[in-house]
């Protein structure tokens, strides 16, 4: 973007010394979906949503698990800093990413005022990466549901457990979420009650699971978590593990009918019938318009 001569003259004498400057970090919530072996060999493996964590090697929060992140280099764009971080700290090459949220509570980092621009990343690759994958288990319960004259107030407690089966590690986290609507104004507050992670990273993970869950309703984002070819059962299981609910088969097939295209390949295995494999149809949104 070109600036005017007037702006150029102004900038010659401009100083930003009167403004305080916070530090800025980039943090990555990286998700994948893996097979979880079924108890019955006649059934396909079930799906499990996982998040990548790295054990901190420095203070503060030494030896606690955290999301991959780095401080922003002011010479780089935000997305460029993210890519450098994921490449250097994780070693992940193939992924989808989108900006999630900016976290800026005053007390979120004990060192100084730090703003975190978080990103959600989705991968289906099997890269040899740094870090450890943790199963995500979320259970929530409504603690208050109150209708008011001009709106409503709803509160819930979220129990978010992260488990690493290989290391026999279970990280316990509790989050309180309140959502209030008064006329056209909406206010959502998320507070950490207990966490075994560094900083406020459990809040970022929760925000990312909610973003992913909501985007399943109107986008094809889920295909970033799947291999190129998949069965409809695998696709349905992937939806269910993110939505945390079972779906009616007929409704599900209607929903994804234009999102996928059949291939000539079949999934075969011991104990269960072969299933036709499908692939993502990148023109599904266009086909909905014609």
Q: What fraction of residues sit in β-strands?
A: 35-45%
> How confident overall, as mean pLDDT?
92
Helix content: 10-25%
Low-confidence stretches: none
CATH level 1 class label of the largest domain: Alpha Beta
Tally of domains? 2
How big is the Rg? 22 Å
SSE ordering: HEEEEHEEEEEEHEHHEEH
CATH superfamily of the largest domain: Nucleoside Triphosphate Pyrophosphohydrolase
Q: State the end-to-end distance.
A: 37 Å
Q: What is the tally of helical segments?
A: 6
Which oligomeric state applies?
A: single chain
Which architecture of the largest domain would the CATH scheme give at its second level? Answer: Alpha-Beta Complex
Strand segment count? 13
CATH topology of the largest domain: Nucleoside Triphosphate Pyrophosphohydrolase
Category by helix and strand content: alpha+beta
Sheet with most strands:
10 strands, mixed
How would you sum up the global shape? Answer: globular
Describe this structure as you would to a colleague.
The chain has six helices and 13 strands. The chain is α+β, with helices and mostly antiparallel strands and 290 residues long. The protein folds into two domains: 23-225, Nucleoside Triphosphate Pyrophosphohydrolase (Alpha-Beta Complex), CATH 3.90.79; 226-290, Winged helix-like DNA-binding domain superfamily/Winged helix DNA-binding domain (Arc Repressor Mutant, subunit A). Strands 1, 2, 3, 4, 5, 6, 7, 8, 9 and 10 form a ten-stranded mixed β-sheet that branches. The protein has a three-stranded antiparallel β-sheet with strand order 11-13-12. A hairpin with a 2-residue loop joins β7 (132-148) and β8. It is globular. The mean pLDDT is 92.
């Amino acid at each position: 973007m070109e600036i005017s001569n007037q702006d150029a003259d102004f900038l010659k004498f401009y100083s930003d010394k009167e403004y305080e400057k916070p530090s800025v970090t980039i943090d990555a919530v990286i998700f994948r979906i893996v097979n979880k072996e079924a108890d019955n060999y006649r059934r396909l493996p079930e799906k499990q949503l996982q998040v990548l964590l790295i054990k901190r090697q420095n203070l503060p929060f030494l030896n606690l698990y955290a999301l991959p992140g780095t401080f922003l280099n002011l010479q780089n764009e935000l997305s460029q800093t993210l890519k450098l971080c994921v490449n250097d700290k994780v070693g992940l090459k193939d992924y989808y990413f989108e900006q999630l949220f900016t976290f800026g509570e005053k007390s979120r980092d004990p060192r100084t005022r730090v703003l975190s621009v978080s990103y959600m990343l989705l991968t289906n690759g099997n890269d040899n990466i740094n870090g450890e994958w943790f199963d995500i288990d979320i259970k929530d319960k409504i603690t208050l549901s109150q209708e008011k004259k001009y709106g409503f107030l709803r509160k819930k407690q979220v129990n978010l457990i992260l488990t690493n089966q290989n290391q026999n590690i279970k990280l316990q986290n509790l989050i309180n979420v309140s959502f209030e609507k008064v006329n056209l104004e909406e206010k959502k507050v998320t507070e950490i009650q207990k966490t075994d992670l560094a900083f406020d990273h459990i809040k970022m993970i929760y925000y990312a699971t909610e973003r992913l869950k909501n985007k399943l309703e109107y986008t094809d984002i889920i295909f970033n978590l799947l291999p190129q070819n998949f069965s409809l059962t695998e696709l349905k299981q992937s939806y269910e593990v993110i939505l945390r609910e079972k779906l009616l088969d007929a409704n599900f097939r209607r929903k994804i009918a234009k999102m996928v295209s059949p291939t000539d390949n079949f999934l075969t295995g011991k104990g269960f019938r072969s299933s036709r494999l499908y692939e993502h149809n990148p023109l599904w949104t266009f086909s909905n318009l014609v």
